[in-house]
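Re-running the complex after MR caught last week's input typo. The corrected sequence lines follow. Everything else is unchanged.
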Amino acid sequence: MAALIKGETGDWELVIGLEVHAQVVSEAKLFSSAATAFGAAPNSQVSLVDAAMPGMLPVINQECVRQAVKTGLGINAKINRLSVFDRKNYFYPDLPQGYQISQFLQPVVGEGVLTIVLPDGEKSIGIERLHLEQDAGKSLHDQHPRKSYIDLNRSGVALMEIVSRPDLRSAAEAAAYVRKLRSILRYLGTCDGNMQEGSLRCDANVSVRKPGAELGTRCEIKNLNSIRFMQMAINHEARRQIEVIEGGGKIDQQTRLYDANRDETRSMRSKEDAHDYRYFPDPDLLPLILTEDYIADIAAELPELPDAKQARFIAEYGLSEEDASQLVEERETAAYYETVAEGRDKKLAANWLLSELFGALNKVGKGLAESPVSAKFLGGLIALISDGTISGRIAKDVFAEMFEHGRDADSIVEAKGLRQVSDAGAITDLIEAVIAANQDKVVEFKSGKDKLFGFFVGQVMQQSQGKANPQLVNQVLREKLNA
Amino acid sequence: MSLDKATVSNIAHLARIKVDDDQLETMVGELNNILSWIEQLNEVDTEGVAPLASVTGHPLPLRADGIADGGYPERVLLNAPDRVADFYSVPKVVE
Amino acid sequence: MTDLLSLDLAAARDALRDGKISSLELTDAYLGAMEAASDLNCYITTTPDKARVMAAAADQRLAQGDALPLDGLPLGIKDLFCTEGILTTAGSHILDGFAPTYESTVTSQLWRDGAVMLGKLNMDEFAMGSANVNSYYGPVESPWKSRDGGNARLVPGGSSGGSASAVSARLALATTGTDTGGSIRQPGSFCGIVGMKPTYGRCSRWGIVAFSSSLDQAGPLTRTVRDAAIMLRSMAGHDPKDSTSANLPAPDFEAALTGDVRGMRIGVPKEYRIDGMPAEIEALWARGIEMMRDAGAEIVDISLPHTKYALPTYYIIAPAEASSNLARYDGVRYGLRVEGETLDDMYAKTRGEGFGAEVKRRVLIGAYVLSAGYYDAYYLKAQRVRALIKRDFDEAFGSVDAILTPTAPSDAFAIGENDDDPIKMYLNDVFTVPSSLAGLPAISVPVGLSGRGLPLGLQLIGKLFDEATVFRAAGVLETAAGFSVRPAGGQ
Ligand SMILES: [Mg+2]
Ligand SMILES: [Zn+2]
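Corrected-run output:
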């Protein structure tokens, strides 16, 4: 499964573990009641607690705890009945308290597992833990030649840090892991997964080794905010490490930053400069105790997650694995699909959604959420196809009209008189007229030029403005021409 | 455990406290005195004793989610030694 | 004027309600006394204008007959409590010019109940100290003079030294203090007044500059036990903004002062008879035991075997928490900033100049005991010993209702004495620290004078949240002791 990397001294195996920071969906921050919304004016979503004013104290937001537990259940993880909030001490201007409240020895969520799908099959990725912690503020370094500016709006926003085991063996696996994790988070509604806004960020621990050898020294690449950059950074870092080792050097355990413009990683701080975080339990908080009932209540509310939904789509709807997997990746897509398919041809619904609608949306650069065609309307179109009211060809025209003007299929079909003509008499009349007008072609056909059959079908459809039932046209035409 | 000058200056850096060289020697002495006095704790048998987490044993209170604070940059920035627009300002951070 | 100042809190409360005096005249009397005794350096900031406005408002309420619990009573506030719009320093250079935009829960409850603020009281920097010589604003002097010390200026104890000295010198009717390892009780003992540290969690810590979060508690310093009960009722109560605040209503502590301790079991721990304890402290303690026995209490010998380890435990836990709590003083958002070439330079200079010697020592010790490789040996070990200390008390309280001990191992000493030896200074808190580590309520009551004519207090320790028993026993001890000596250096 592992994609080995060729080096001068032979093959190398890449070992990756990911730390994902996922912003918890909540109105207010983890330990203060200031807002969490993205994009507010500087320092406008900052409470006295977030600014670490003297004497300010943290009080935990129950929704953030609930979201963390929900996420833990969603990744099949052990929920710890007792967990502890610790202080991680370091100085940085966007860390007003001089410490981050995090969880170190006793996180709220313990070991779990996440299954990713790779071209050659499924793979289980171990999850070591999930803990709750505060986000830091934001430093702006590019506003002034000698100063950095600090905005504390993010300071104190709840994050879930989800740490994988070093089970990933390629950048592609890492990407599949993040996509899957993001999908689950979004299903659960515990993180919006928006990487551009920083709601989901990855740190990648990367090391290389000869296949089967002991783990190599790892470097941590911080703050990767897109899946593409993460893959580029991992691949770059792997090549760098192989070059260093093959050049007779040694890997220093470092924290590195990825520069997407130059496609390179560079050292942020090395081991000798490493932080000594002096973790200890936050004396302003008490241990967090969760009851079995509390956990069971949350478990009972869990939505159907992508793996289960995919299995159901395949088993009950007869969809292909590929279609099902595409449909379940986003919760919204799956929900849209189920509305379209409700009481209708499941496969037809899947085809129309995946090829026609997504094709059209792609062309105009829109997402499903902004689709001018609602799920109900698309379902209406599918119904008209299935019951023979319109043909598949006419349906494409109707769809284009729906996409353009946001109207429903029925009213377009009615207004434009696009109802399929299935009256044998009317169709026979049309066919006879076409035969009469093309006697030369009839002669050719009869002399063996079979291909001309298509020409006659085309003529009849054209005369009917596409409304003639194509099956009926075929049948009657064959009778007449062979008569 | 005994501290030397290098260790003390390391801790001072960790705590971001400037200690002048002429104070360092005194500081090393004082801290060592305190540490060796503290180390009488080694006499205590704490085998199997759970570290104390809370004296009152109350559970952690949880608050409801909802926006009820913030929205007052003026209060937040009022005491700032170096304010630029609505930001705190610090000597440039180089990473 | 002297008459006004001689009223204690309870008496002043009654006189105000009866319309015999006005809050404005009472407040003015205190403002005058404060000015006259400014040499003691009790106040860092005085707020006379605010005091008069608050007094006038109180007088109006009093005149209408709807008096609040503390209506019109002038109080001093330790400068560790954040007070809205008023300089709050924690006795430190590093909080230069800091005027909070918020009011601590405890002080806001005092104002809610009608009290009048006279000003902010001097203290050891960040509440670290036992002599109030560690303030950026200079040492506080006690109004007491030793009979044999010539005219030596004496310390009031610490860290609530300004709070204790001010009550003793009658520069406030009562004051707030905070106690982490003895910072209310030890200065109470040194200054011949009552100092009450309630159960951890009884008073909200919100808006109080943090020293050691698992130990800090606010409490009153007063002339009498009754005054302490009245003050604490207003200071206490559940605060949802402090996760460690107990979800319990503040009881009517005054009602606990029944004067009756018949059948109460008072424990006397043998481990408090420490080596080198002055005979007069020993004798005072014996007298206190007799007083309680005479009042009908049953005296029970108890053992608190880990007492000896309380101080070293404290000097790991408190500095560790402090090193983290004080990280926010970095020159970025408030207070002092000393500019530097780089960010780290700015941090180190700001904190190097902003913190005094004792604070630096403790921050460094704290950072060290938490650092990689030492955490288990120091911090975790200390938390385990702390658990044993608490267990000792739990077991003792199986057979007693309260515990009687000396408050401090000596009377007050001269300013400048003990300065060169941190550990000697730390030993001041040998009797107060164990109950702090266990979170228990404890009070110091003035009981007698040392050979040098300086006050000595005894301490009563109660069960968690059982301040009522502590007050009841303290009231009886106070009556029996009849301590009524006034400092020569006072008004
Ligand atoms: Mg991390
Ligand atoms: Zn993190």
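None of the earlier attempt is carried over here. Chain B touches chain A through 34 residues (CB under 8 Å). The CA atoms of residues 12 and 18 of chain B lie 7 Å apart.
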